[in-house]
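Objective 1.3, modelling of assemblies. Example input:
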Amino acid sequence: MKSSDRLDLPVIGSEVGSTAPVERPWGWDLLRFAPVRWTITNPLYPGVLQAVSIAIFGLIAYYGLFGTIRPAYNFSTVVTWTLWWPLLPLSLLLVGRAWCAACPIPPAITLTQRIARPTRLPGQLLRRYGVWMMAGIFLAITWADRVWGITGSPRGTAYLLLALVIGAVAMAVFYQRRAFCRYACPIGALTGLYAMTSAVELRSRERGCKECQQECFRGATQADGCPLYQYPRTMDSNRNCNLCGLCVKKCPHGAIELRARVPGRELWLLKTPLVAEAFLVVLLVATVYVQTVDMTTAWGSYMRWLLDTTPISNYQLGFTLTLLGALALVLAVYLVVTRLSGGLGSWRRNFAAFGYAYIPLALAVHLGHNAGHLIGEGPSAVRTAIRAITPPFDSLRPAGSEGEAHLNQLLLLPIIVIGGMASIYVAWRISRKSREMGYVGRFAPHLVFLVALTALFVQLFLMPMNPRHSH
Amino acid sequence: MLVKKAIVIGLALALMGSAGLACSKGGDKAQTDFPSYVYASALSLDSYKAAVSLPKELTTQMPCYCGCADFPTPHRHLLDCFINPDGSYTDHASGCDLCGKIILDAAALHKQGKSIKEIRANIDDKYSVYGKSTDTPLLAE
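Predicted structure (tokens):
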């Protein structure tokens, strides 16, 4: 959208739509440091990052479609699942959704919009059900990965990434800005929630916004409006901020700050908890559990019991029911826990508010699970990727010529425990927000559930884990 | 309202399960007493089933290109990736996609009525690009 195409837009900002400024939490403004400010306000940011990611994406698509079918030796699978996927949650913890600023998909969106020139903004349907849609897509991809083997298939990897691009382009034909990123991207669903634990946040200073014309949201002569439809003045969460820096560049009052903060501080300060996002967190917990079990030796024992003992004889069906069953179980227990917890005005708000407390644990398990793969298989993945793109462009190598690093799973346990403790702390802070009943009574059910989940994940990490890609 | 949403979600989950059921192929309930590692993935399970159901005359004349020829005790043929010489199962193929794909290709061709010689030629043609094969002589005419 050109900055000259200013529209009479209602202030969207957070989901509630309130124009009341949010609480100003403590934190250091990193934009005071010249290198940070220079980077964020540089016209080449994030274009340079996007150019690099586009090049890598092109290689992933090429090798995925035409390279070797062996996942451990194909550029697309090793770069996507052994390197990028494990590093993504780490980046979310450190710098929020900064990956989204470097993502190769937005340039495709921009190019499409220059041709199609859409005038529509996301309507009620997307704004109300967008998160549900992202949750459904995320679940579908998780299922498809196991049933059709996306992470173990170079072609599957290429098809998935190309499908995301096609979806983004399709939405860009109809909607302004990045409707796909905000309401449909399954990776965005994950990054949005995990980014809430980040050690940085982008917010506005109250005094700088008093006489503004909302250039950060509507656009100005030097830059477009926020691509994710955010209004920094009322923004209280990282979930829809991709740190693209557009608002920093065009704010004439210098009111935007990029603050270092206590990681995850917004989880208990959030003014607009969403039921859909709480459900997505439950989905994340269930899927990381199934995906972690899947890679341990316990999975084979479980599937043998399932297929040999029950009427289920089809492997794919067994996995499908297991995944859905895990989701249903975690959801059911969480519903009971929120019912017991009470408080915060209503069961619905309780369900939504406490959901965010489980994000640190889900992130920790995701980190721990993938750290094992990254450390154990990462060096080999880097060598494979380099061989694929340097003469003689042959990533295949004789088996046994290079050893893999072996990571002691016990070293990952502190990550899980810290994640569990962080979730417990967030639940405690959330429980103290309401004065309707004693906060110990509100906190206790979640404490029990979180301790149980943490113990469950610790037990999983005590088991030997299989490599992501076989040789 | 939340109860209604829970019902909708439950129905959606049930529908997805039904879709999975509709898409599923019938499984084989034959008691093969596989170790648990065989159940690591659908490919692993299907490939071990193929290994025990295909004639030994076929599987012992098929090579493997996964690199097992360079093991301290080199594999002699494709069957060695699934079953040890003493008849016990080995977990090698449960973690090796290539072994699984080769044997499933061989099984599909066998089902089409191809001869051992034809199956061997097909496997060599398709998988020789992946590396060194086991030293597997072809005895069939």
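The longest strand of chain A covers residues 200-204.
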